Amino acid sequence: RAASPGTSPFVAPFVEYSHIAQPNAYGGHYSVNANALALTRNDGVDTRRTSVELGYHIPYYAPYGNVFTLDTTIRGDLYQFSSQPVPNMPGDAESGFKERLFPQLGLGWKLPLVRQSGNISQTITPMAQVYTAPNGGNPWDIPNEDSLEPEFDELNLFAPSRFPGIDRVEGGTRVSYGGQWGVYGPNGAGTDVFFGQSYRVTEDDTFGRGSGLDDQMSDYVRRLRILPTRNLALTYRTRLDK
């Protein structure tokens, strides 16, 4: 994770904790994620951060093979900062505290379809994911230490946030959609292809230009994977301008 400009950063402590509970009778489970960071520089922004996220996740297997997932999370962040530059005011900096409460609701769907022809199996899986959260959530006085350069690809297309870290959140409502087709042999060899995109309901300047997420309609992401054997995979990923 990249850090914001400055010299001689010293990070201590940096603590992460994650816990996923056992599923209950309905298949749902709770999750807890916590993070604490203290980053000090000889010259630049000093950041102290505490973050706690609580979540509840439940799958639902509907008739005809439809699979739904419901994810609810709420995260609380507390920042203490010093020497944070003030936007559009060169040379000015502020120090203080900033808190953030960020709830998010997600609903996912996929329909795995399989066709068997002798020893060859073919799969087609359309999928979609909707996330909704309050707009905004990234005020200037929350330092950005770990979310500077998001990399948009098929790995985070359906993720709750496309940012790699905690300091920036992805608010508003968006829908991601895509599909995967694959063909596989009896010994684990095969080929599969994925293609997807996302759409944000409202305009948002959270992501920078060239990220693939700076407009309401995102770039296309795709992946080609070739498995010559069960223990070897060749993967090609690309992002196409919309």
Give an account of the 3D structure.
The chain is mainly beta and 242 residues long. It has strands spanning 6-7, 10-20, 29-40, 43-44, 46-61, 67-85, 93-110, 113-117, 120-133, 172-184, 190-200, 220-229, 232-240. The two termini are 27 Å apart. The mean pLDDT is 92.
Based on the model shown, name its key terms.
242 residues; two-stranded antiparallel sheet; 0% helix; 59% strand
Per-chain topology:
Blueprint: E1 6-7, E2 10-20, E3 29-40, E4 43-44, E5 46-61, E6 67-85, E7 93-110, E8 113-117, E9 120-133, E10 172-184, E11 190-200, E12 220-229, E13 232-240
Antiparallel strand pairs: 1-4, 2-3, 3-5, 5-6, 6-7, 7-9, 8-9, 9-10, 10-11, 11-12, 12-13
Instruction: Report the mean per-residue pLDDT as an integer.
Output: 92
- Total strands: the figure is 13
| N-to-C CA distance | 27 Å
Strand proportion = over 45%
| Low-confidence sequence ranges | none
Total of DSSP H or I helical runs spanning 4+ residues = 0
**DSSP helix fraction:** under 10%
Radius of gyration: 21 Å
What composes the largest sheet?
11 strands, antiparallel
Describe what is shown at a glance.
With 242 residues, the chain is mostly beta strands. It has strands at residues 6-7, 10-20, 29-40, 43-44, 46-61, 67-85, 93-110, 113-117, 120-133, 172-184, 190-200, 220-229, 232-240.
